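Posting for a labmate who doesn't have an account.
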Amino acid sequence: MSEPTRLSSDLSRLERETDSFLATVESLSDEELAAPSLCGGWTRAHVVAHLASNGRALVKLVDWAVTGEEQRPYASPEARNREIDEFAALPREELVRRARESAAYFAEQSRRLGGELAVEEVHMHGKRIPAPAVVALRNSEIVVHHHDLDTDWTLERAEPDSLLDALEAAVRTMRAKDAPGMTLVSEEGDEWVVGDGAARVRADRAGLLAWLARGETGRVAADGPLPVLPTW
């Protein structure tokens, strides 16, 4: 698949996953948005606020890929957290509007990845990300955080390639955080090696992602004790 074709496919899939996420958000009342999410210490409104902030932050990685000039998605962890808290405190309609505008802005700006790129990879939080994979990274954020809203939507409802995007991002995180050695094997036929690959962990894609991203162990099996994962 050529890079322009892959980009078009990635953007189409991102649009579908984003529309699904926003539909879930629109269905939540003020009280439901204020309820806890699956992200420790965050309400559902914080999850929505994070994605509203994240869409614009990831455009800086697009800028880096296209221009070759290094960009930091956030000025600092403190600035990131402050913006999320500010967005989460907005009235429901304003928060949803910002989430929609951020998603549209990212989709528009990321089309530039279909042209000539100045660098092969960019970095974020210590992770090396192939420049063309920034769209897949955004898709992984949408999928995992849709799950974090803790509604009827589950990871099983994400498209297979969206789960693959999210697993690739989760594996990059594990490698950046020096997670214990493990070989991750999906029922769909994927395999990833982290470190020395010592522990073999099996599940379907959704089960592996739920474990790597949120520590949910119900669907994973291992040859011996499950590795203890680092915090995100």
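Reply:
Got it, the structure tokens are right above this. The helical segments are 3-26, 30-33, 44-67, 77-88, 92-110, 134-148, 160-176, 205-214.
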